[in-house]
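Sequence in, structure out. Go.
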Amino acid sequence: MAAVTVHDLVQQLPPADTLLHRCRAFALLDAVFDQRYRRHTFAAAWGPRGVPLAGMDNYSGDEYTIVFDPSGVLLLGFDHESPATPWRDDDHEHWPGLLDGVPDPLTGYLREPAFLFEDFLDVTVVAWLETGDRTWRHGPVDFSELLDEDTPDPDGSAHLFGLLADGSATAYVEFAADYFGRNVDAVAVAAVLAGQPLRPEIVAALAPEADFAAVAVDALAMGYPLAPSGDRQPS
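Output:
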């Protein structure tokens, strides 16, 4: 298996608007399947500046945060079992170069209390896309000493962001089968990923037991469109 690091990830990430839509769609799909233990989350207006914020938490120590600031997008990921973890030794230091080069308007998020654990930013993957730029960037990290057949994902890039980078209905269906333990209607998933206004029949196709009203509340909070009530067919 070829190794994957942030060097590869930035070649796979989509433009900011596509990434935002993808994050929101995954969060909404998760909300359909489980109102309590969602892996993906999305807030349309987070913090004092009211910026969109996406998150992932696998409840096993791995997580990511993606901030959609007016000045650009900042992606922060932490794989607690990664060889690049700051917990790899007693010094508790970021991998060399990991935070270097983050644009000044985005550096405040590196000190954001909501993103810190015991006043420290736990990250193994950092990437950013400045507004007006088409190229995702990262710091001058070198993982060559970690690259071997036993370490295919030295910084956790594939583990954390593989689904997000793929972004397809097929990839989400495979994720849902594993995480939620259920078969999922790929057509309904594709409808959400395409941004079709949410209707009861889409939710029912995904999870017949789901409460459409509760999902609709989540959709509104995420900024996901709802079909006008007159256009919704009975579920």
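Check: The longest helix spans residues 16-33. The CA atoms of residues 111 and 121 lie 7 Å apart.
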